[in-house]
Specification:
The complex is a heterodimer.
Chain A: H1 3-31, E1 45-50, E2 54-58, H2 62-70, E3 72-74, E4 81-86, E5 90-96, E6 113-118, E7 131-132, E8 138-143, E9 147-159, E10 168-180
Antiparallel strand pairs in A: 1-4, 3-9, 4-9, 5-8, 5-10, 6-7, 6-9
Chain B: H1 2-29, E1 33-44, E2 48-53, H2 65-73, E3 75-77, E4 84-89, E5 93-99, E6 113-117, E7 131-132, E8 138-143, E9 147-159, E10 174-180
Antiparallel strand pairs in B: 2-4, 3-9, 4-9, 5-8, 5-10, 6-7, 6-9
The chains are: A alpha+beta, B alpha+beta.
Chain lengths: 183, 183
């Protein structure tokens, strides 16, 4: 094989290897780059409740009489306690799912249950003073940003009337709803 | 033919890519919502409250013509609306009255003490006019449902008899009882 024939062959080999070497170096360069990590977080909210169920006994005696005279009886303060967590704008609301259960044929009105909410979170929009509950959702608090362990102490007050509120057991169920809101 | 195959593959790839993108957008748009229930239970027992205004009533007969007239009439009426009873009850109720015997110079007949209830409603058993009290409870008023702040202005009358009622101080205690009725 003559030298003339050998050189062009080597040149051809070098020309062929160069792109491979370049590409290889590119691969090494890419492997040292920072990787991209993608985490999709949806709108999330969490509503916790403590001391959810409240039992009130109107006693036969001065306390019961005084409650009727005052026209109401209060449940234990700050019970239940709601705890709000959310990662985007949110709204906390309350409604009664039904009227009071019948006592005999007597139907006590849902508006005889009043609610006052105490919170220092700064997002309270309603129920700063005692206001009646209804079957329609009413806003307690809302925010355009997230919330972390925001506490809302609820205080129940039940209106009493000598002429209407006969002896018996009165039960009503409330629903607290925490929902994230479209921005 | 080969070109068509490549186009189909490309179209499928674009479709899958679009679905992923849309699903991602959709998952961000979904809002979160949580609910918690709170049960409020109020137990009301039968409660009644009896108030009394001007409970103690006093009358002095002096030596004058008026006293003679009263002895001639055989009776003396004590001031009207004394005492006044105030009734509250959250169900069917009954008001009764009984008198202790007279304390005085001689055992004056307890029936000589009479009572009238001038309330416009719910007065029973003849107490709309003066009726003698006894040492046993007699029904003065009643009603089949609860009432609030129902006033019963009462008045006493004492029978007089020249032959029996010697000078002196006569006292008697009247006990009013308000009780709820029925199961």
């Amino acid at each position: 094989m003559s030298i003339k024939k050998v050189l062009p062959l080597r040149a051809k080999g070098i020309i062929f290897l160069l792109p491979i070497l370049c590409f290889w170096s590119l691969l090494f360069a890419a492997s040292t780059d920072t990787g991209e990590f993608v985490l999709d977080i949806p709108s999330m909210s969490k509503l916790s409740i403590q001391d959810a169920d409240q039992v009130i006994n109107l006693l036969q005696g001065a306390s019961g009489e005084d409650a009727y005279e005052a026209g109401y009886i209060d449940a234990d303060p700050a019970k239940p306690k709601l705890i709000v967590d959310a990662n985007s704008s949110w709204k906390l609301s309350v409604s009664a799912i039904m009227e009071w259960e019948l006592v005999g044929s007597y139907q006590k009105a849902s508006s005889d249950l009043l609610l006052k909410v105490n919170s220092t979170a700064g997002h309270q929009t309603g129920f700063g003073s005692y206001a009646p509950i209804s079957l329609i959702d009413q806003e307690i608090a809302s925010s355009s940003s997230g919330a972390d362990n925001e506490n809302y102490g609820c205080n129940y007050r039940i209106l009493l009337d000598w002429q209407k509120d006969i002896p018996g057991v009165y039960v009503i169920i409330l629903t607290y709803t925490l929902s994230t809101q479209p921005t | 033919m080969r070109l068509l195959k490549i186009n189909k593959t490309a179209a499928l790839f674009v479709f899958v890519f679009c679905v992923i993108i849309l699903f991602g957008e959709f998952s961000f748009a979904v809002q979160d919502s949580e609910q918690q229930a709170s049960v409020v239970s109020l137990t009301i027992l039968p409660v009644a409250r009896l108030g009394i205004v001007d409970a103690n009533v006093q009358e002095t007969l002096i030596q004058d013509e008026n006293s003679e007239i009263k002895f001639d009439q055989g009776e003396v009426e004590l001031p009207a609306q004394k005492p006044t009873l105030i009734i509250d009850a959250n169900k069917r109720w009954k008001l009764t009255a009984r008198a202790s015997g007279f304390n005085g110079p001689y055992p004056k007949d307890v029936n000589d003490l009479m009572l009238k209830d001038s309330s416009s409603v719910h007065v029973e058993s003849g107490f709309t006019d003066f009726k003698s009290l006894t040492t046993k409870d007699q029904e003065v008023a009643s009603f089949s449902a609860g009432v609030k702040n129902e006033n019963h202005p009462c008045q006493y009358k004492i029978l007089l008899n020249y032959a029996k009622d010697v000078p002196g101080t006569y006292t008697a205690t009247v006990t009013f009882t308000l009780s709820t009725q029925g199961a």
